Amino acid sequence: ELKNDTIKAELGRGTWKLLHTMMARFPENPSTSEKEALRNFIYLFSRLYPCGECATEFQTLLEKYPPQVSSRETASQWACAIHNIVNVRLEKEIFDCSLIADKYKCGCDDEKANEID
Ligand code: FAD
């Protein structure tokens, strides 16, 4: 199952990148509707993620660690912590969550950092 494992890992890398980048762009002071949108997204994502065993494991994780959606900072730290729990299960390295804001940039036009590049 080497081929399937490679595909699964690629899907995982792309998905984590999207998730962390979404958190990095989540409003610092989200409205009630924005918080609801993120919470709904995460739960729907956990049902629809196209790797059955991963989705089931992820749903169990969400029961224990419900999404934190009150701000960009809490959402980013929550996603980093969840990813680290998956890392532990898969015997991967732990990521230092204090570095999260620097690592994930969306490359969006309205980002100041983009003007310098
Ligand atoms: P990844 O874990 O994909 O990480 C990509 C990059 O993100 C890393 O190289 C690092 O630079 C950075 N990173 C690492 N940790 C963090 C962190 N905590 N916060 C922010 N950035 C970080 N695979 C399975 O085999 N079984 C499963 O049950 C399973 N469940 C999954 C559940 C979900 C919700 C997702 C999204 C993926 C799941 N995967 C699962 C895939 C798995 O997590 C990896 O994506 C895959 O194994 C590839 O690993 P990787 O070593 O390339 O790094």
Task: Quickly list its features.
Four Helix Bundle (Hemerythrin (Met), subunit A), mainly alpha, binds flavin-adenine dinucleotide, 0% strand, single chain, 69% helix, 117 residues
Please explain how this structure is put together:
The protein has 117 residues and is an all-alpha fold. It has a single domain (32-116), classed as Four Helix Bundle (Hemerythrin (Met), subunit A), CATH 1.20.120.310. It contains six helices and no strands. α1 packs antiparallel against α4 and α2 crosses α3 (52-64). The radius of gyration is 15 Å and the shape is globular. 10% of the residues are buried. The model has no long low-confidence stretch (mean pLDDT 93). Bound molecules: flavin-adenine dinucleotide (FAD). The site of flavin-adenine dinucleotide (FAD) has 21 residues, from α1, α3 and α4.
Q: Structural class, please? A: mainly alpha
Bound ligand species: flavin-adenine dinucleotide
Poorly predicted runs are: none
CATH architectural arrangement: Up-down Bundle
| pLDDT averaged over residues | 93
Number of helices: 6
The best one-word shape is globular
CATH class: Mainly Alpha
Q: What name goes with the CATH superfamily? A: ERV/ALR sulfhydryl oxidase domain
Domain unit count: 1
Task: Give helix and strand order, one letter per element, not per position.
Answer: HHHHHH
Binned strand content? under 5%
Helix content percent band: 55-70%
Number of strands: 0
Largest sheet, if any? none
Distance between the termini: 42 Å
What is Rg? Answer: 15 Å
